[in-house]
Structures are given as C-alpha cells and as structure tokens.
Amino acid sequence: MQSDTAIQSMRTARAFRVCSLFLLLLCCCASWGASDANEQAGRPLHGVVAVALTVDRLDDNLAPYGIDRSGLIAAASERLNRAGIEVIDSGEWAQRTDAAQLSLQVRLIRAPYYFYLYGVRLIARGKLALVHGPNAYATAEIWSEGSVGAVQPSDLGPLRELALRLIDQFIAEHRLQNG
Predict the structure, then answer these.
(1) What is d(CA 104, CA 144) in angstroms, rounded to the nearest whole number?
(2) Which of 50, 66, 96, 130 has the fewest CB atoms found within 10 Å of its own CB?
(3) Do 68 and 117 form a contact (C-beta atoms < 8 A)?
(4) Sequence-distant (≥ 6) Cβ neighbours of residue 161 within 8 angstroms
C-alpha cells in the first residue's frame, strides 16, 4: 500500500501534466493562422481612426482584484484616446467605414490545487464590404495579440495590467501602420 505522500505526489504530477497539456493546446489554438493572415493583409490597421471597445468573457469574481468591466473599459479608452484613437459605441461603429471593433477577452479557469489558468486576448475586427453601401459587410479579424498562463489566486491583480499592455501593443501597431 502506498503512503499518503506518494499518492499526493502522483496526483500533483498528474495535475501538472494535464495543466501543461491544456496550456500547450491553448497556445497553439490561440495563435493558429493569426500571424499568416495578418502578414498577408499588409497593413490591416491602416486607415482605422476609431474603435468600438468591448470587454468579453470577464469573470465577475475578479472585481475584488481590481479587474472589472467598467474599470477596464475606462482605462483602455483613456489610453486609446490619448493615442488619438477615438472610442465609439457599437451603433456608431456600424455606420462608419474607418472604425474597427476591439474586443478584450479575459478568461479564467480554476485548475486543481488552487491555481488559475488564464487567457487574455485583444482582437481587432474590421469590416469587409460585401456590396456597395454602408450596411452590407462582414467582419474579419485583422489583428490580435494575447497571453496565456497560470497564476495563484493571490496573483490575479496583475492580469489587469496585462490586459492594458495588450492595448498598448495595439496602439504601437496602429502607430506603425498609420504613421
């Protein structure tokens, strides 16, 4: 019969393997095809002067760590406006051809043994005209960046700064493509 320590050790090793495989899969799936599409498009952010910003898939339990929807939108909007990128609502976005949708996604999964797996991703979507006219379009991902990892519950606060760094990366790429 195995000791409690040996059983606990085997469980920890199994949990580590499962979480490692999950992170590897998440990394592969999150970046699959994104860089090729962006490279082929050339300068997909060229001409974008405004964005409709949303925060999706945010866990409400993150509010005690300083990560809440309204706070993220306010901080991101302030950075975008300071960089000369107008933040508009979704209704105005539908009427404009020089605007993109910007979606900040923060996902959190509680893993075994008291840590969290996270995925933070920023996605810009642009309009593709189907026919002449402002209301006949489809959207396509024109730029994205993200990060995945694992953190202890006490280390969830820095996810907010990670999300805002993605906004800064978007701004830097926007400047590069728009001069």
Answers:
(1) 10
(2) 130
(3) no
(4) none
Which residues, in sequence order, are bridge partners of residue 87?
Answer: 51
Pairing mode of beta strands 115-129, 137-151:
antiparallel
CB 52 within 8 A of CB 93: yes
In the chain, the amino acid numbered 66 is: G
Query: What domains can you pick out in the chain, each with its CATH number?
Result: 4-178 (3.40.50)
For residue range 144-166, list pLDDT tens digits in order.
999 999 998 888 888 999 999 99
Contact between residue 85 and residue 38 where contact means Cβ atoms under 8 Å apart: no
Question: For the residues of 10-56, what is the DSSP string, one character each?
Answer: HHHHHHHHHHHHHHHHHHHHHHTTHHHHHHHHS-TTTT--EEEEEEE
The 8-class DSSP code of residue 119 comes to E
Q: Quick check: pTM over 0.85?
A: no
**Residue 179 in 3-state DSSP?**
coil
Q: Going by C-beta distance under 8 Å and a sequence separation of 6 or more, which residues neighbour residue 52?
A: 87, 88, 89, 90, 92, 93, 99, 100, 101, 102
